[in-house]
Structure formats: structure tokens, C-alpha cells
Design goal:
It comes from Funneliformis mosseae. This protein is mainly beta and 103 residues long. Helices cover 11% and strands 33% of the residues.
């Protein structure tokens, strides 16, 4: 089993769900579900289980992020990268931004 390093960033209010953490460098298995490569779906579930401190319903809906959360993979909208099916690579920079604001 090899480990891959990933930089996670949370902003737009997302950091409040992660104990006010705006950035986190993590190492995860390259095969969370062997023999398949680790995907964004795996990473999101891992984040929920290992990093999320409160109110998971504000981060996830089913097995994906809630509507209103913009996800960037290496500065590119995750919709262009395959969303949940994107295979996580060593050195990826993944950003979660809440676009929902009270007013």
C-alpha cells in the first residue's frame, strides 16, 4: 500500500465545519478500496470520517458534497475532472468552497 499526499483547503464558511481549519495536508492510501485507485468519492467519505468536526449534513448529501459547495481539483472545477470518479493523485490540491451565504 502506498500513500499519496493531498492538500485540502476549506473556505467560504466550510472551514467552520472543520474546527476553523482552512488548510490541511493529508496522506491517504492510494487504494482505499483495493484494488481500485482512490477516487474523490473515497476522499469525501474519508474527510467525513476523519476531519469533519460537526454538522455533516452541511458538507455532504448522500455520498457527495452538498449542492452549493464548489470543488476545485488543481484549480479546475471538479465537473471537468469527472467529479466523484476522479482518481486522486499524489500532490493534488483540492479546494472546497461554500457558495451559500446567509444574508
Amino acid at each position: 500500500m502506498s500513500l499519496i499526499k493531498v492538500k485540502l483547503s476549506f473556505s467560504g464558511g466550510m472551514e467552520l465545519l472543520f474546527n476553523n481549519t482552512k488548510q490541511k495536508h493529508i496522506e491517504i492510501s492510494s487504494t482505499i478500496n483495493p484494488p481500485n485507485a482512490t477516487t474523490m468519492k473515497d476522499l469525501i467519505l474519508w474527510i467525513r470520517e476523519n476531519l469533519l468536526k460537526e454538522r455533516p449534513e452541511l458538507f455532504m448529501s448522500g455520498d457527495t458534497v452538498r449542492p452549493g459547495i464548489l470543488v476545485l481539483i488543481n484549480e479546475t472545477d471538479w465537473e471537468l475532472e469527472g467529479e466523484l470518479e476522479y482518481e486522486i493523485k499524489d500532490g493534488d490540491d483540492i479546494v472546497f468552497i461554500s457558495t451559500l451565504h446567509g444574508g
